[in-house]
Design brief:
By secondary structure, the protein is α/β, with parallel strands linked by helices. It is built from 9 helices and 9 strands. Helix 3 packs antiparallel against helix 4, helix 5 crosses helix 9 and helix 7 packs across helix 9.
Length: 277
C-alpha cells in the first residue's frame, strides 16, 4: 500500500515504511526462554549488542553439502545434511504454528504511520514529497524487495530518505546501528546523527548501539546505498517485547515508546523538509 503527501513536483522524497503483517510463532520465541537466560546469566545480554545470526545455519547447511560433494568429504556432507534437515524442520514448525496477534510487531509501526500521516495532512511538508509505504515483511522482506524493483529507479539515491518503523512498542526506543541476515551492514552515519540529534532535542532517550542479525524493511534501502534509518524498540534483554509470541497483544504495548517514535519521526521529517543533508 502506498500513499503520498507533499508537492507532486518535489525533487526530494522521504519514504516512511511500516510493514502490516503478523508472524507465525514457534517454541523458540517463547519470552520465558529469554527471561530465564537473563535471570541466570545476565552477562549474555550485557556483553552482546548484536542479535544471534539465526540465518547462518540455513545457508551453511547446503553450502557444506556442496563443499563436501566437491571435495569428496562425507563428514561435511553429513554435517550439512544435519543442519539442512534441522532448518527445514524448524521452518515447518513455524509454518504449522498459529499466527500471533502482532500488536507490537508491527501494529505499532502501522499506527505510528497513520498518526504521522494525520500530522502531515494538517501541516503538509513544503518542499519534500512523503511516501507512506506498507508491505509484507515476513518471508525475507519480499514486499519491500518488490517495491524496490518496481520503484527504485524513480527514487534517486542522493534525494531519497527511507525511515522504517518496526516494532516500536517495547519499553526502550532505539535506532538500529546496523542489520543484515548474512552480511551486517552499518546504517549511514549521517542518518544516525540526524535521528540521534533530533531525539536529544526532544528529550527522547534512545537505547544505544544495537545491531540486528535478522532484517527489517530498512535492509533494502540500506543495501542500495540510500540515506536511511530503522526505528525499533527493545526490552531490558535487548529484544523486542513479546516477539512472535501469543502475548503480543495491545495491552502489552508500551504506548509511551510508540508516542516517542511518532514525535521523533515527525520531527525528522520536518527537519529534512526544511534542510536536506
Amino acid at each position: 500500500m502506498i500513499g503520498e503527501i507533499g508537492p507532486t513536483d518535489a525533487e526530494r522524497t522521504i519514504v516512511l515504511m511500516a510493514h502490516h503483517d503478523a508472524a507465525h510463532t514457534a517454541f523458540f520465541f517463547n519470552p520465558a526462554i529469554t527471561e530465564a537466560v537473563g535471570d541466570a546469566a545476565p552477562w549474555v545480554f550485557e556483553q552482546n549488542d548484536t542479535s544471534p545470526p539465526l540465518m547462518w545455519p540455513t545457508v551453511a547447511g547446503p553450502a557444506l553439502v556442496s563443499a563436501g560433494a566437491l571435495l569428496g568429504r562425507r563428514g561435511l556432507i553429513s554435517l550439512g545434511t544435519f543442519l539442512s534437515a534441522g532448518g527445514a524442520a524448524f521452518m515447518a514448525h513455524i509454518g504449522a504454528s498459529e499466527v500471533v496477534p502482532g500488536a507490537n510487531d508491527n501494529g505499532t509501526g502501522c499506527i505510528a504511520q497513520l498518526a504521522i500521516a494525520r500530522a502531515l495532512s494538517e501541516r503538509p511538508p513544503e518542499s519534500t514529497r512523503v511516501m507512506f509505504l506498507s508491505t509484507s515483511e515476513e518471508a525475507l522482506c519480499e514486499g519491500m524487495g518488490l517495491f524496490m524493483e518496481r520503484h527504485g529507479a524513480e527514487l534517486p539515491v542522493d534525494r531519497t530518505f527511507f525511515l522504517c518503523l518496526d516494532t516500536i512498542g517495547s519499553p526502550h526506543l532505539l535506532a538500529l546501528r546496523g542489520e543484515g541476515m548474512l552480511k551486517l551492514r552499518e546504517y549511514p552515519a549521517e542518518s544516525l546523527h540526524l535521528v540521534d540529534a533530533t531525539a536529544e532535542e526532544l528529550g527522547i532517550e534512545l537505547f544505544p548501539n544495537l545491531r540486528l542479525r535478522n532484517a527489517t524493511d530498512g535492509i533494502f534501502p540500506l543495501a542500495a546505498g540510500y540515506q536511511c534509518v530503522s526505528i525499533a524498540s527493545c526490552n531490558q534483554w535487548k529484544n523486542p517485547s513479546n516477539y512472535h509470541w501469543k502475548t503480543d497483544l495491545p495491552e502489552n504495548v508500551d504506548y509511551g515508546t510508540v508516542a516517542d517514535a511518532i514525535r521523533l519521526s515527525d520531527a525528522v521529517i520536518r527537519k529534512l523538509d526544511e534542510r536536506w543533508f
